[in-house]
Specification:
Layout: H1 7-13, H2 15-28, E1 35-38, H3 45-50, E2 57-62, H4 65-74, E3 79-82, E4 93-99, H5 108-117, E5 119-130, H6 136-142, H7 152-161, E6 164-178, H8 181-191, H9 201-215, E7 216-217, E8 220-234
Parallel strand pairs: 1-2, 1-4, 2-3, 4-5
Antiparallel strand pairs: 5-8, 6-8, 7-8
């Protein structure tokens, strides 16, 4: 993905991700004084909401130096560090959280096992991911994606395969309107989630024309966004 390169344009082009982060923060239920390790914090969409919880001790991390720099400037009360949660050692924590990170892992269950090993005894994790039917309209046209898409039960099986018991889960779905397919694709590109080019210019233009034809309404084109938050503990 292109998150470090797109750090300065991320916030202006990631409205759905930021909206779901606010909901994830409400789902987490942090106890007073609980130590929280956030993985893949980006510029602080989730961090910002967690930081206002009284007594929370939050350590926000991200693999992108540019994202960490922006997050530290925006939310200085929180401890910030550079950390590749998929590669490097993960610090010990009572509570481990993320929103919009786990889906980028090549082997999600393997990553979850590593993260589980970093929980202190009695610790828990809350990780949130985009979930079916997120962006289903666009995926039906291009039929290519940088991530593997799963429904709620599919994600719960991934957690179970990592030796984790799902205690709670919450699913949200929204319809997001963009002026046109070009605006939608541009926002995804500028937020950094599109990665390397997968379509040639001709195919991309045709895909956007098809999207406009199929999904344009009175206010613009509609896209489905869906998010799943899971609280899990070691078995």
């Amino acid at each position: 993905m292109r998150f470090d390169k797109c750090a300065h344009s991320y916030d202006a082009n990631a409205a759905p991700q930021r909206a779901f982060a606010a909901r994830v923060a409400g789902f987490i239920q942090i106890a007073p004084g609980e130590g929280v390790l956030e993985l893949g914090a980006g510029t602080g969409a989730l961090t910002r909401h967690l930081s206002v919880i009284g007594g929370a001790n939050i350590h926000a991390t991200d693999a992108s130096p540019a994202m960490v720099s922006l997050g530290r400037a925006a939310i200085p009360a929180v401890r910030w560090s550079e950390l590749d949660a998929f590669q490097g050692p993960v610090p010990r924590a009572e509570l481990q959280v993320s929103s919009g990170l786990l889906q980028w892992a090549d082997e999600e269950a393997c990553v979850l096992r590593r993260w589980k090993a970093a929980l202190v005894p009695g610790g828990r994790m809350v990780h949130a991911v985009p979930c079916e039917p997120c962006l289903s309209e666009w995926r039906a046209i291009i039929q290519e994606s940088p991530v593997r898409w799963r429904d709620e039960n599919g994600w719960c099986r991934v957690f179970a395969g990592a030796g984790l018991r799902v205690r709670r889960r919450q699913f949200w779905v929204d319809s997001v309107v963009f002026p046109s397919a070009l605006d939608m694709v541009g926002a995804m590109h500028r937020s950094g989630i599109t990665g390397r080019a997968r379509l040639g210019p001709g195919r991309l233009r045709q895909a956007m024309r098809t999207y406009d034809d199929r999904h344009r309404g009175p206010r613009g084109v509609v896209a489905t966004w869906a998010w799943l938050a899971v609280e899990a503990v070691p078995e």
